[in-house]
Amino acid sequence: MGLREMKKRQTRQTIAAQATRLFLRHGFDRVTIADVAAAAQVAKMTVTNYFPRKEDLALDLHEEFTGLLARTVARRAPGEPALAALRRAFLDAVDRHDPAIGFADPDFARMISASPALVARLRELHEEREDALASVLAEETAAAPDDPLPRLVAAQLGAVHRVLFQEAVRRTLAGESPDEIAAALNRSARTAFDLLTPSLAGYPHTA
């Protein structure tokens, strides 16, 4: 990484860190872009260049989040069904207490849940993640543009991840520890993926 790219990354990290600090202290809806710019000691335009939407200051992992399922499927071992790859990846993420599947600091979870704007943006991110997965499945199966099957499959797989994410947040807000949440998600995930196995165990079909 060159010096210029390193400085850009550092600036982005500083802006995101200052925004999170302000959001946790004052609430997302009460903090303005100007407040974040002042705290990070940058111009307001600099903030919007890095984060076009205010919600993305709070949900800074949105690119990683929306591409997670698609990347898991695209990078899976040859011959491995998509369902098996996603199941394995999710259970591994549970063991890591990965924020991408819903693990969060309780204060952060409360901040997200208290803001209608952030709740709506998170819903959009789940939809974008499902769309990305559908694109990978359509490409792998050479599906016709009017073939609904890749989107139907992505909708089912996306729904499992969305519900489990919401369950992690709910349990966090209820005061459960990360280990307790992990144990519950492990059980629920195995049940959910087992329910999909009869229909999706061999999809997409491989030679």
UniProtKB/TrEMBL annotation:
Keywords: DNA-binding, Transcription, Transcription regulation. Pfam families: TetR_C_14, TetR_N. InterPro entries: Homeodomain-like_sf, HTH-type_TetR-like_transc_reg, HTH_TetR, MftR_C. The keyword DNA-binding applies. Residues 9-69 form the HTH tetR-type domain. Gene3D superfamilies: Homeodomain-like, Tetracycline Repressor, domain 2. Residues 32-51 bind DNA. PANTHER family: HTH-TYPE TRANSCRIPTIONAL REGULATOR BETI (PTHR30055:SF234), HTH-TYPE TRANSCRIPTIONAL REGULATOR RUTR (PTHR30055). This is TetR family transcriptional regulator. It comes from Actinomadura chokoriensis.
